[in-house]
Every structure is written in structure tokens, then in C-alpha cells.
């Protein structure tokens, strides 16, 4: 396993991916606007992509870069279905605040 | 650790570019989750995606950098911004930048510098692609051809394509089915039922 990718230490890139993942988790936890929660999920998926590409380059194996496309496709599908759900919920509740979605509470 | 940092500052411009794009990624990601206005968050997310594309470019994954811009910064962001516009929760405050010309000029300068650094990130390696450590190392992927044994796919795009269609053909097809189901589900979820339309008409009248 190479410790450097084009002069960049692998540990730095993994640290950046960890920071990005933590920011995404923080956004999911602290924000109440449902669209911004979706954006935070996109940040999390992007950090995972960064880790895949890093290990693909460090281990000199192409499979990691292939799997990034599957992650991108699943992110696109998630965004399509999730935003359709947002619109359907907004039509009923007139709000995008997740605190006000209590209809499944019992 | 200090030796590593010193050596890299000396030897490779790609390390400096990585520091820049990493900083931009973290700052704009923080801006995504701490901005009050969702539209400003969306614009920050576009910058995050572009900075990540720059990092992929520095690492030599050119095809993934392209797909990052096309799929994330293009398709998904258009979807999110459309939904934000449809919901239109408050009067948008982007026009306040017009009232502060200095801020507008500074942001435009930042965008311009960002573009040129992205450009240099993608071109630092390509003219020197033969030199080890300076340019992109050629990715090779050997795949079997009937009768001739194995041959090599040279370059990033050819390698990723060969790996997708030879090793991961079944997952690729299943992803296409998943996308079809997701599109159908989105249409069914977001369409208005006919009875609802009639009811709203009655309410309006």
C-alpha cells in the first residue's frame, strides 16, 4: 500500500473524509429543515466516495473507483425519492420542519 | 511528521492544491449546515462538490472527477434547488448581495480564483504524466479476451469502464433497475390525485 498519492499522504485524505462525514452527521442531527438534512446525507455519501477513491489509488486496484459509480447512482435515486416525499409531505403539512411530522407517533 | 510536510511542500504542487481544496471543502461543508437560508446552503454544497472534484483530479481519478461535476453538481443540485424553489418558504435574500457591491466583487473574485485553481489541479499532472510522482500514474487493468489471453486497458476511463462491464456487470444492471423503480416511485409520490385537485378547486371557488 502506497503511503503517498501524488505527493499527498493517504492519512490526510482519510482525515478529510472523516471530517466531512462528521459534518454531515452533525447536519443531520442539528438541522430541522428536511431539505438541509438531505444535503447533509449527500455530504456523508461524498465522504464515502472519497475513501473509496483513496484506497483505490493507494492499493492500485480499480474496483474502488467502479463502486463510486454505484454510490452515485444510489445517491441520485435517494435524492429523487426523498425530494418527492418532501413535496408530498409539504402538500399535507405546509411545512418542511421535521419536528412537526408526528403522524407516526403513538 | 514534520519531515513529511516539509518534503511535500518542497516537492509537489499537488500537495498545496490538496491543502487548498481540503480547506474549501471543510469550510463550505460547515457553511451548508450552519447557514440559515437553504438557498445559500445549496450554493455552498455546489462549492463542496467542485472542491471534491478537484481532489479527485489531483489523485488522478479523472473520470470520477468528471462524474462528480456532472451527477452531483449538475443533476442532484438542480433537483434540490428546484424543490427549494417550489417550497419557497420565505422571501429569498440573495438580492441583498446586490446592495453590497464590495461583497459581490469579493465573491466573484473568489469564484474566479477557484476556477483557475481547479483548472491547474486538473492540468498539473497531464503534461507530465510520464514523470513518477508529478503526473498521474497510468492506471492499468488487465482483462481477458477470448483467444488472445489478457490485454491491458490503459488510462483511467478505459480501466474503470473495463472493470464496470467485466467484473461488475450484474450490479450495473441491478442499479439501472433500481433507478427505474426510483423514478416511478418519485412520480407516483409527487403527483396530485384527481380528487385532491377537485377539492382544491372547490375550496378556491
TrEMBL record, chain A:
Q: What class of enzyme is it?
A: translocase
* A Pfam short name: Oxidored_q2
Q: Name one GO molecular function term.
A: oxidoreductase activity
The protein's UniProt keywords, in alphabetical order, are: Cell membrane, Membrane, NAD, Oxidoreductase, Quinone, Translocase, Transmembrane, Transmembrane helix, Transport, Ubiquinone
Which PANTHER family does its entry note? NADH DEHYDROGENASE SUBUNIT 4L-RELATED, NADH-UBIQUINONE OXIDOREDUCTASE SUBUNIT ND4L
- So what EC number does this one have? 7.1.1.-
What topology in the membrane does the UniProt record assign?
Multi-pass membrane protein
Task: List the protein's name.
Answer: NADH-quinone oxidoreductase subunit K
The residue ranges crossing the membrane are 12-30, 35-55, 67-90
Instruction: Provide the catalytic activity annotation.
Output: a quinone + NADH + 5 H(+)(in) = a quinol + NAD(+) + 4 H(+)(out)
Q: Which gene specifies this protein's sequence?
A: nuoK
TrEMBL record, chain B:
From the UniProt annotation, give the residues forming the signal peptide.
none
- Where does it primarily localize? membrane
Q: Which UniProt key words apply to this protein?
A: Cell membrane, Membrane, NAD, Quinone, Transmembrane, Transmembrane helix
The protein's matches in Gene3D superfamilies, at most eight in alphabetical order, are given as: NADH-ubiquinone/plastoquinone oxidoreductase chain 6, subunit NuoJ
Q: Name one Pfam family in it.
A: Oxidored_q3
Q: InterPro entries, per this entry?
A: NADH_UbQ/plastoQ_OxRdtase_su6, Nuo/plastoQ_OxRdtase_6_NuoJ
Localization per record: Cell membrane
By what name is this protein known?
Answer: NADH-quinone oxidoreductase subunit J
| Species this chain originates from | Leptospira montravelensis
Q: What is the lineage of its organism?
A: Bacteria, Pseudomonadati, Spirochaetota, Spirochaetia, Leptospirales
